[in-house]
Amino acid sequence: MSSTSLKIYEIREKQVWENFVTSQEEHSFLHSWAWGEFNKSMGDKIWRLGVYESGELIAVALLIKVHARRGDFLFVPHGPIIENQKYNLKFKILEILTKEFRKAAKEEKTSFVRVSPLFKNTEENAEVFRKLQYRPAPIYMHAEVTWTLSLKKSENELLYGMRKNTRNLVRRAEKEEVKIEFGTSPDALDEFMKLYKQTSHKHSFIPFSKRYIENEIKAFDQEKKCSIKIYLAKYSGQCISGAIIVFYGNSAFYHHGASGSGFSKIPASYLLQWEAMKDAKKENKEFYNFWGIAKNEEDKKHPWYGLSLFKKGFGGERKDYLHAQDLVISPLYWLSYAVDKARLWKRGV
């Protein structure tokens, strides 16, 4: 089949987009309608592209124009999403999308297009991108190595599927009378941001702004097919741990986490995750996605080692996705490449 038999149209109907994305086996909230709306609220231009075969929608791609100091670029987060039964057309679908990406990049005067696909990290998938003149990006954009737990079990089975120490810490937090609350109110956001700033200072990373997280919450809070909750763990009247969980499609995603500098001996984060997992199960989600973990799980010097150990303690399995791929449009790309390389070195990952 020639790629000329495939057609691309911009999708403007929310229901068409959401029904397609959430019906596919591999998807994340980064390709939801709400994520597009969130990026628009942050001042970014977006395109919702649909690939059609004989009038049937078989793939979608959310394309975002990202504004950066080093120069703007186009980005596809955790996509494109391809219809489950059409993976045999992967090359043809990516070929026609790449032509559209090139066209948009030249019109928007950006130096490259970055694609972070939810394709398995295999040589076969890497070869598809190589044939289309992509190169591995110097840095990741979103989680590429994730930890996912199936919720297709009873609560008791989930509890006993945890590492023994993790299970004991959940129970200990209950005995210590840690209270878990959730909501999306301005007060809940303020509580989370206090913890988030402490966490960023402790672990030396640049946090997202309050406006960023506030707009993310607004975008997901207004949708029917997805929701978002700020979870807060309180001990002796003080908020000591927090998380922002996105409920979308068949999964709940642990997107942001934070913990205070005090009460380190109170295992509030363990109980918080357990309560979020139970809520996801009540909402008939099939998976709980803990988001990113360290690629090298045995490297104790990795800045994510402790966090990865924490997530893995709840049980689940590792998923490796193909590394982000860059489509070079102009020589200015190499300036961005150098900046990203420096950022990666600074992160120590």
Automatic annotation (TrEMBL):
Classification via InterPro entries: Acyl_CoA_acyltransferase, FEMABX, PG_Glycine_Bridge_Synth
Keyword Acetylation assigned: no
Highest taxon in the source lineage: Bacteria
Keywords: Acyltransferase, Cell shape, Cell wall biogenesis/degradation, Peptidoglycan synthesis, Transferase
GO function term, MF aspect, one: aminoacyltransferase activity
GO biological process: cell wall organization; peptidoglycan biosynthetic process; regulation of cell shape
Family of this protein: Belongs to the FemABX family.
Record-given protein name: BioF2-like acetyltransferase domain-containing protein
Upper taxonomic lineage: Bacteria, Candidatus Spechtiibacteriota
